[in-house]
Each structure stands twice: as C-alpha cells, then as structure tokens.
Amino acid sequence: MDLGERLQVIRKRHGLSQRELAKRAGVTNSTISMIEKNTVSPSFSSLLKVLKGFPMSVEEFFTLDLVKSDQVIFRAHEQAEMQAQGVALQLIGHNIPDRGLSMLKETYPPGADTGAEMIKYEGEEAGTVIEGEIELTVDYKIYHLQPGDGYFFRTTLPHRFRNLGQHTAIVISANTGPTSTHPDQTAIGK
C-alpha cells in the first residue's frame, strides 16, 4: 500500500474528512488531497505535521494494520522501507507496535534532505555514519559527519539531516520517544 492510499485509509478509519484532517494538522485541504492521490511526496516534516492531526507517529502510520509480533530476527527482505524527500528509511522490526525504540538504516542519496523545516519531538536519537558524509543540524548548529562519526542528541532540539556530498550516505540510527518515531516525530528524521 503506497503512502497516499495508507493516509486515506487511516483518515477514513478515524472518521475524518480531508477538510477536518487538514484543519487539525494545520495544512490545506489540497495538501491532504495531493498526498492521498500521490501527486506530491511529503517531506518528513510535512508528513509528521499531517500525522499530528490524528495524532499518530510515523511508525504507527506505517505499521497500523499489522498485529503484535514475537518475531526476533528480521531478514533484509522483511524490513519495511519508507521514503520521503529522497531519503530511504529501513525500519527494523516494523511489525512491532507500541515500541519504545526504533532502529533505522537511513540512505541519503546526494542532495537528499529531511526537509527545510527542522523537526523536533520528545525523545532521544543516536546514530553513526557508515558511508558518505552527512550534514547534521541540531539546535541551529551545523555538524559535518564522516564514516565512523556518531551523534547523540535530545530530539526536543530542532534538527535536520542533509547529504551535501557527491556520494550516497548511509546512517544507522536509533531513537526513542513517546511513540518512537523518526525522522522526525516532529517531524523522518529525521
């Protein structure tokens, strides 16, 4: 199920019109309509803004129709992938609802960005750069990370991730929060 179709199903499950969801989320009706029709791919921050209209975390959004699982091992082909703004997020254990921790493999092609709008939410995030280079902005301070560099910050601070390099960057991250989302419960964080 694609992002637009999923949003429409969840909106209808909550008994909301596009207009009501837009009002709650602080966006226009046309934004909701375009997302549902897949004519626009929302940034992480835009998606999180829309999801606050339910309210719902990114993980809940992508795993809502899945049941509780006692699965321990998640093979590469079983990991859910989410995409926004060119950033690919691979969520390990996507079918585990009510999680307190999210573990992600994040792939940033050259020019990928979590969105011009900085994100923030209640929780913590840590990660390490595996390949490429990432520009991380936390609380309006800019950091350049290379392979082997790591980070940790409280996600109540506004933050943003960008790949300004010429090569794909890969980051492994973990985050916590009331509903443990990323990229950006603020909104990805991301």
How would you portray this structure in words?
It is built from five helices and nine strands; from the N terminus they run αααααβββββββββ. The chain is of the alpha+beta class. The strands form two sheets. It has a six-stranded antiparallel sheet, with no helix packed on it. Strands 6-5-8 form a three-stranded antiparallel sheet, with no helix packed on it. The longest helix has 11 residues, at 3-13. The chain has helices at 3-13, 18-25, 29-36, 44-51, 58-63; strands at 80-84, 87-92, 101-108, 124-131, 134-138, 141-145, 150-154, 159-162, 169-176. Mean pLDDT is 83; it is low at 179-190. 22% of the residues lie in helices and 28% in strands. It folds into two domains: 3-63, 434 Repressor (Amino-terminal Domain); 76-176, Sandwich (Jelly Rolls). α2 packs across α3 (29-36). The two termini are 22 Å apart.
**Do you know the CATH architecture of the largest domain?**
Sandwich
Report the CATH C-level class of the largest domain.
Answer: Mainly Beta
What is the CATH superfamily label of the largest domain?
Jelly Rolls
Which structural class do you get from the secondary structure elements? alpha+beta
Shape: globular
Largest sheet: 6 strands, antiparallel
Q: Which fold name corresponds to the CATH topology of the largest domain? A: Jelly Rolls
Q: Beta-strand percentage?
A: 25-35%
Percentage of residues assigned to helices: 10-25%
Number of strands: 9
Q: Compute the number of structural domains.
A: 2
Q: Going across the major beta sheet, what is the strand order?
A: 1-2-3-9-4-7
Order of helices and strands: HHHHHEEEEEEEEE
Q: Any idea what the radius of gyration is? A: 16 Å
What is the arithmetic mean of pLDDT?
Answer: 83
Number of helices: 5
For the record, give the distance between the C-alpha atoms at the N and C termini, rounded to a whole number.
22 Å
Low-confidence segments, ≥5 residues, pLDDT <50? 179-190
